[in-house]
Amino acid sequence: QLQLVESGGGLVQPGGSLRLACVGSGATLDSYGIGWFRQAPGKEREAISCISGSDDMTFYENSVKGRFTISRDNPRNTIYLQMNKLKPEDTAVYYCAVDMRLYRLCVLDTLKYDYWGQGTQVTVSS
Question: Cβ atoms within 10 A of the Cβ of 88, count?
Answer without folding.
Answer: 11
